[in-house]
Amino acid sequence: MIMKGNVRILGAVLLAIVALAVYAYVNQLIHGLGVTGMNRPVFWGIYIVTFVFLIGVSAGGIAVASLAHLAGVEKYKSIGRIAEVTAIISLILAMISIFIDLGRPERVLNIIAYMHPLSPLMWDFSILTIYLVLCTLLLWTSLKDKPRLTKIFAYISIPTFVLVHSITAWIFGLIESQPGWYNAIMAPLFICSALVSGLAAVILMVLFARWALNVDVKDDVVIDLGKYFKFLLPILFYLLFCEFLTISYGGIPSHTDVLKEMVGGRFAATFWFDMIGGILIPFLLCFFPIAKTVKGVALIAILSFLGVFAERIDIVLPSFYRPLLVTARVEYFPTWVEASLVAGLFAGGLLMFLISSRIVPLEHREVKQR
Amino acid sequence: MGKRSQKKFDFHIFLVENNLNTELPKKFTYQFDTVWLGNKGEIMAMDREQKKGFDRRRFLKVGGAGLALLALEGHLKRVSPEEILPKSKAKRRYAMVIDLRRCIGCESCTVACKVENNIPPDNYGEPARKISWNEVIFKEEGRYPFTKRRFWPRPCMHCENPPCTKVCPVRATYKDEERGLVLQRYERCIGCRYCAVACPYGARYFNWSKPSREDKGEVYFNPDVEIRNKGVVEKCLFCVHLIKKAEEMAKREKREIEDGEIKPACVLTCMGNARFFGDLNDPESQVSKLLRSGPAFRFEEYLGTEPKVFYLLPR
Question: Is residue A36 part of a domain?
Answer without folding.
Answer: no
